Amino acid sequence: MHKITLGNQILHASDGEKLSEVLLRAGLFVAHPCAGRGVCKKCTVLVNGKQELSCQYRVHENITVILSEQANIESVTGGAFAEKQTDNICLALDIGTTTLALAVVSLDEHKIQQVITRTNPQTAFGADVISRIAYCCDNGVQPLFDVLIKEINRMIAQLHVPTVNRMYVAGNTTMLHLFLNTDCTAMGVHPYTPTFLASQCVKAEKLGINGVAEIITLPNISAFVGADLVAGLNLVAEPADGKYSLLVDLGTNAEVILFSNTSILCTAAAAGPCFEGANISQGMPATAGAITAFSLDNGIPKTQTVGNAPAKGICGTGLIDIIAELLKHEIIDESGYMEDDCFEVAPDVFLEQADVRQFQLAKSAVFSAVTALLKQKNIRPSDVETLYISGGFSAKINIENAVFCGLLPAELKDKCAVLHNSSLLGTVHYACEQNDLDEIVNKSIYTDLATDPVFSQMFIENMIFPEV
After folding, report:
1. Pairwise CA distance, residues 402 & 395, whole Å
2. Residue 133: pLDDT band by 50, 70, 90 thresholds?
3. What is the distance in angstroms between the CA of the first residue and the CA of the last residue of the chain?
4. Which residues of 68-98 are buried (b: 16+ CB within 10 A; e: fewer)?
5. Do residues 418 and 236 touch, judged by C-beta distance below 8 A?
6. What is the mean pLDDT of the chain?
7. Which pLDDT band holds residue 14 (cuts at 50, 70, 90)?
8. What gap in Å lies between CA 43 and CA 372, rounded to an integer?
9. Using CA atoms, how far apart are residues 59 and 264, in angstroms rounded to an integer?
């Protein structure tokens, strides 16, 4: 056994054990977006004063370790807040792949009393649902369940509220399986079969959750369109007769829903975690120092960051702005090529050629999914009443830049409405109104674009950036 010193804490490791595994066992959750393959370079720690990747470093001696500072994600919830604090409350929880958001809901005013957000500790097992399902295949659900419940209990304790009767929970289908300690591995292979889709009602003590009597999860539509999208649909208004609206969720996974007052067509776009910064070389979530906005002023880079802190990396909205600005100034051409291998957007923060390629894949997936659903319904953009944009960074997205770089259709630019955290807000709405969510699920049809040859062709074509 070898001794690992972290400040005042002493850990022990077997000879040859990965440092990341030791840290996980101790409840120290270093993010591993690439699921421990050693390619994202984002789990860097100091070992005896030298930078090492915790997922690759094997312990063969006594060492001293210093972890990188773990900051919480800044997330704009949106929605109205209650004017008075009352005891007639419940809790609403959104389990995002990257972010957890927990709200205290006033059942008297039907509004939020307070809300807190935290990073989902399961990022230690991978950035997306596929990597977490893969981890479950090898190690079971328990490790991911345990870290999630511990964090939720810490969040509930920080609210300082009396025990509540109910907590309503939304999230994608995989996240809800992990939350309920339920096997999700069948969703990792064709035909992608969830253990459950319907709403679940369980006693909180069965899950080890404190301060709550009963847990109710919102229903899911399919393996890849979950309760978070049901909550979003519960939040928005139905379009007028003969009209359609779109809901595009730009989270770690990208889902697209085309809906009218009689039908709902939905799909998942394989955008990957690009918009959360996970597969961008200096990408990062919206924590202190993340670039959220970017422009070139007479060739001089201008940035805005979370907390106005010195720039440390690039989050989703910043990435969209950077790509758009470099296209406008012909630093990136229509094919995505940069003459130089990288561009310095801030001191020691660079956009690399590989990052542009990752963005092209993501933006083409979203744009092609939107246009494919419109084609399936034989709908023209003029028939779309509203394009709702939701997701962790939607509050700060520059719509004009998103259209300019080909993420969203130009015909819908003036029809965009930002929802912020539609999953949490839709869950709050359900907690207060108790409307029938099964009506949404029963009207919904999931379409698998992976088998759609029209989508495949559009995906290739939309990799190219729009003409400047």
Report:
1. 13
2. very high
3. 61
4. eeebebbbebbbeebeeeeeebbbbbbbbbb
5. no
6. 90
7. confident
8. 38
9. 53
